[in-house]
Amino acid sequence: MLKTQSYEVATNITYEYIYVKASGSGDDDDNNARPTLLFLHGFPSSFHCWRHQIEHFSQQGYGCLAPNMMGYGKTYSPLNTDEYRSKSMVEHLVALLNHLHLGKVFVIGHDWGTRPGSRFVLYHPQQTLGLVLISVGYTPPGIIDLDQALESSKQAFGYETLGYWKFFISDDCATIIENNLESFLDLAFTSDPVQWKTDFAPIGKAREWLTNGRRTARASYMTEDDYKIFRQYIAEGMQPKLNWYKAAIANVDGDDEMNVDPTIKRPVLFIGGRKDYVSLISAYSGQKQYIADVETIELETSHWVMEESPEEVNRAIDEWLKRIV
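RESULT FIELD:
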């Protein structure tokens, strides 16, 4: 079990994190030291979702830093939606890197972690060596119009891939999830990925599933201990976690990103799951126009790529890293 630590990245704002130092590094200037990988999790997760990657890459000599993002664990979890600005989160991460005397890092994000991950590279390219996006590809700065996005996805794919956002931004969602934790975990980590297409993504379906307390078989790649950990994080309170969605719909990043160059000037690896019916790989085909050096790898997984096929993910990242370092 890796030791968790905490650091105050700004006044009254503390981040909880796991850190394994790169081997062979007496200090950050050691040229023989392998770089550090900064892992950013998504929803409804925690730094626990990177357990397979931290074990693998720390054994390879890489440094591994995995914070609990805002809203999770002992990390700052405000109820004010306006505080969930990507630029603020990036500055929190920079403060954490500086505290640990880390220079350039590889940023690896999954799900919502891809947003601060990509913004980190936009705002601080000099502190990054490359970016790995898992499940969710690069979305350039711009205003989010949810209704338009829902209509577009229905026309393109036959259903609203982000229809569940309507539920997640509703005022009663947090309470409904907290009161139906087992039902929520079943759907989030279902053994049948198609259920995301039928019972999760379309408008009204996630609410219907939970309020009826429906159950289904959970994925085999999660142990009972893993489920207990996920359950504990959710039971600690859902609203701060759901604020990521509310902040996005409120376009809290609008002013910060108005004049940001959307071009990513670092190598990017995008790993998607062919059985992910929310974050469809084809939905991110346009990211190539913003990234000169991007490689896409498709795996036979659902949304939880790095948990479902950790060896394939580790191997893909490993080979990509070696080409860059």
